Amino acid sequence: MTRDVLDDRLIGALHVRALSRAGLHHDPAASHALVQAGTIAALMDGRYDGDLSLGELLTRGDLGIGTIQHLDGELVIIDGDAWVVHGDGTVAAVAPSTKTPFAVVCNFHPAREHELSGPIGFTALTAAIDSIAPPDEPVVAVRVDGDFRDLRLRSVHGQHPPYPPLREVVLHQSEWTVDHAHGSLVGFRFPDATSGIEVAGHHLHFLSDDRRIGGHVLDLIVTSAVARVDGAHDLSVEVPNGLTLGVPGALGDEIAAVEGTSAQHPH
Q1: What residues contact 261, with CB distance under 8 A and at least 6 apart?
Q2: What pTM did the predictor assign?
Q3: 113, 227 Cβ separation under 8 angstroms
Q4: CATH class of 3-259
């Protein structure tokens, strides 16, 4: 599957709507869509203060990823609970009152699943996800449960005003490796043309079953796991006051460099 195919499918297939915070709560279609707080372009620009709380966001989805107020770590939403992996690698439950400048969630109802027998590297994993993704869905929500080894994970430390842009923050990000862990990969595959609104390609976070290990996934090997996917056509984006939705397809190379996703786009 090529990126051009995904981008062509995006045209007329993915419905992106900018909503105010009030509109998000009263939008009757939001329960059937991916719901997002903020945009990746705003995050790139150092907008780390959100106006939507995790409690509000969790009324719209039970699976998702993102970050929390002040860019204080990597957010993982799984089974309706929110967890954050801080820059020192510690994992903590997130209070519903905690705000987020950037996060995306969905109500996860997997349409397809596939058993994975390893060893399978990250590139092969994303190819397997693409192979079972619904062919007519531009966006795919992903959950992979199983055993993993040689995980390379990362997170960032919380920031203080005046906020530096994200490209400067990641120069000082924390990275670590984990020999073995049992847990879940959670995330999404977005088409390239959504870059600027979202992170294009495969964007996955990890959380161990014992909730002691997690982070943004840079690399790993699957030992054995079950991959489940759920497609979507609609993306409702809550845009804070003073911001615009931005231009889809913008900042692609810069976002890929910051997110470490240059090798994670669908092929």
Answers
A1: 199, 200, 201, 202, 203, 255
A2: 0.88
A3: yes
A4: alpha beta
